[in-house]
Amino acid sequence: GRLIDLVKKKGTNLNRVTYLVFDEADRMFDMGFEPQVRSIADHVRPDRQCLLFSATFKKKVERLGL
């Protein structure tokens, strides 16, 4: 939430981020944070490296890494 607020208020810019790391991404999705996770990913450069860490992965979490 805080990161998205900073991006919206132009307090920070994620265009130069080269690595995007989500720990327990599946739990974030289960808790309803998928829109926020996708919003952050959308603000990061398209040639980023996306790292997702979790004990288990659902298909929708795997697609985020593409």
Automatic annotation (TrEMBL):
<keyword id="KW-0347">Helicase</keyword>
<keyword id="KW-0547">Nucleotide-binding</keyword>
<dbReference type="InterPro" id="IPR011545">
    <property type="entry name" value="DEAD/DEAH_box_helicase_dom"/>
</dbReference>
<dbReference type="GO" id="GO:0016787">
    <property type="term" value="F:hydrolase activity"/>
</dbReference>
<protein>
    <recommendedName>
        <fullName>Helicase ATP-binding domain-containing protein</fullName>
    </recommendedName>
</protein>
<keyword id="KW-0378">Hydrolase</keyword>
<dbReference type="GO" id="GO:0004386">
    <property type="term" value="F:helicase activity"/>
</dbReference>
<dbReference type="GO" id="GO:0003676">
    <property type="term" value="F:nucleic acid binding"/>
</dbReference>
<dbReference type="InterPro" id="IPR000629">
    <property type="entry name" value="RNA-helicase_DEAD-box_CS"/>
</dbReference>
<keyword id="KW-0067">ATP-binding</keyword>
<feature type="domain" description="Helicase ATP-binding">
    <location>
        <begin position="1"/>
        <end position="66"/>
    </location>
</feature>
<dbReference type="InterPro" id="IPR027417">
    <property type="entry name" value="P-loop_NTPase"/>
</dbReference>
<dbReference type="InterPro" id="IPR014001">
    <property type="entry name" value="Helicase_ATP-bd"/>
</dbReference>
<dbReference type="Pfam" id="PF00270">
    <property type="entry name" value="DEAD"/>
</dbReference>
<dbReference type="GO" id="GO:0005524">
    <property type="term" value="F:ATP binding"/>
</dbReference>
